[in-house]
Each structure stands twice: as C-alpha cells, then as structure tokens.
C-alpha cells in the first residue's frame, strides 16, 4: 500500500492496526479486544482533546488487553486486539453507526469527530475497521467451531453515577455461553456479576458477536470488567484466573449437553 497516497494522518498509522497473539493457538476460543489501545495517530491532533481526556477510559478499555493476554496464555487461545483508539474508530460498531466515530462520549465532546465528511469516515473505515474485521474473519476460518469471547472494561462511575456491577456477562440473542458462565459464576461468587450490564444489546455493543458468531451459530459471549478491579497486576491476575475458571466450566458443561 502506498503511504504517500493516504491522507496525512494515515501515514502515522502502524504498519498493521491489528495485534494478533498466538495465531496458532490450539484452543477453540478466539479472544477479541476491540478497545485494547488508546493510540491516536499524530496527524489527528488528539482529535482536539486534551491529554487527560485522550488517555482516559473514553479512548480505550483500561486493563482489558492485559486480562485478554493472560487468558490467551492460560487457554492457548489466539487473541485479536486493535491497536488504534476506539475514538478514531470503534471496531465494535459497523460503519453506518453514529457511534463508530462518535462526536460525544460520556461528558466529553470530541471535536475531531464532529462534522466528518463521508470521505473522512470512509478512510477510517477502510484503514482501521476493515483490516480488523478481516483479521478476525481469517482467524475464525482457521479453527473449527470457534468460541468467540470479547473482552472489555468499563468505568466504575458513569455520568456521575456509581456502578455496583463488577463483571458483566453480555450476550445477544444466542444466550448459551452467557447462561453457562452465569451459572458457573453463581457457584463461584467472587464478584458482583450481572447479565447484560452495564450495557446490553440494546446499546449496540454486540456488533462483533452478531457479525462473527451469532450469524454462524457459534458460541459467543462478551465480558465487561469494571476497570478499578484492573488497576494493578494482582487485580488483573485475579480476574483473569476467575474468568478462565468460569469459561472452562461453562464450555465443559455445554459439551456434555451435546
């Protein structure tokens, strides 16, 4: 691809916008982290945000990648992670969504996303969203009966309101894996676990699940962890170990049902 033909900011993208770890992992589980990083290409001038906002939770999911990496190692599972901030393009949203390149997030206005032309939207879609989707599709083709697990984190206070939920187990219309994990969590109640919280499919957060798993009848789940639980290595390790036990137990139970 000829970098000189790109708009200026695209020339500051990494060579690949996708971080693939353990591409030859033996597990049927495919881990996905759409909001893994907060990197905003230099030419976009932090999208008009000050440094504090550009590094805050609106730009990425703090701790999510670290949890996903520990799960990847423990399960020998391939991990697909995005290298670009979700403020530039949220890879868990389709191009037609107004949340794919949102102009407002929580209490923050994102000036660099306001009034984007169709050409500007298309450039972000073509160089960020589509390569990520391609990498995900190719990873799924390389393993039979993929189990798709996406890893996210969320802020403990949103729009000034504290959130009691600590771990959310999210699903769209296919509830099989979420149900089994919720059953496992009830037997190992280390955290406040809730179904489809703090978000649910009505909030448009299940695009990756819909696109790559639900449409193909594959087991899938989205996991949300409150990010204050991921503030240090001990917290990350505790959550990752607990999630591994839930996921392993749930998959075992589901295999015994078939």
Q: What structural class results from the helix and strand content?
A: alpha/beta
Reading side by side through the largest sheet, how are the strands ordered? Answer: 1-3-2-6-11-9-10
Instruction: List the uncertain runs.
Output: none
Rg is 18 Å
Descriptive overview:
The model has no long low-confidence stretch (mean pLDDT 94). This protein is α/β, with parallel strands linked by helices and 258 residues long. It is globular, with a radius of gyration of 18 Å. Helix 2 packs across helix 6. It has a single domain, classed as Zn-dependent exopeptidases (Aminopeptidase). The longest helix has 25 residues. It has a seven-stranded mixed β-sheet, sandwiched between helices. The termini are far apart.
List the helices and strands and how they pair.
Blueprint lengths: L17 E4 L7 E5 L17 H4 L9 H12 L2 E5 L21 E2 L2 E2 L8 H24 L5 E8 L2 E2 L2 E2 L4 E4 L5 H12 L5 E3 L11 H6 L7 E7 L6 H25 L1
Parallel strand pairs: 2-3, 2-6, 6-11, 9-10
Antiparallel strand pairs: 1-3, 4-5, 7-8, 9-11
Helix pairs in contact: 2-6, 4-6
């Amino acid at each position: 691809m000829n970098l000189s033909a790109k708009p200026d900011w695209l020339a500051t993208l990494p060579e690949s916008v996708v971080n693939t770890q353990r591409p030859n992992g033996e597990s049927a589980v495919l881990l996905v982290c759409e909001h893994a990083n907060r990197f905003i290409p230099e030419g976009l001038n932090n999208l008009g945000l000050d440094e504090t906002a550009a590094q805050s939770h609106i730009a990425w999911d703090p701790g999510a990648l670290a949890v996903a990496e520990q799960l990847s190692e423990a399960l020998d599972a391939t991990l697909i992670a995005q290298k670009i901030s979700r403020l530039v393009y949220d890879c868990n949203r389709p191009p037609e969504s107004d949340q794919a390149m949102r102009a407002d997030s929580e209490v923050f206005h994102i000036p660099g996303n306001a009034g984007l032309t169709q050409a500007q939207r298309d450039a972000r879609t073509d160089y960020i969203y589509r390569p990520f989707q391609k990498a995900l599709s190719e990873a799924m083709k390389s393993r039979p009966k993929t189990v798709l697990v996406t890893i996210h984190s969320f802020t403990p206070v949103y729009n000034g309101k504290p959130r009691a939920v600590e771990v959310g187990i999210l699903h769209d219309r296919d509830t099989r894996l979420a149900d089994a994990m919720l059953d496992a969590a009830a037997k190992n109640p280390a955290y406040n676990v809730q179904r489809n919280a703090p978000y649910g499919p009505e909030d448009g957060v299940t695009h990756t699940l819909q696109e790559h798993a639900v449409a193909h009848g594959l087991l899938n789940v989205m996991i949300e962890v409150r990010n204050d639980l991921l503030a240090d290595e001990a917290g990350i390790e505790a959550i990752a170990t607990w999630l591994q036990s839930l996921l392993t137990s749930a998959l075992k139970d589901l295999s015994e049902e078939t």
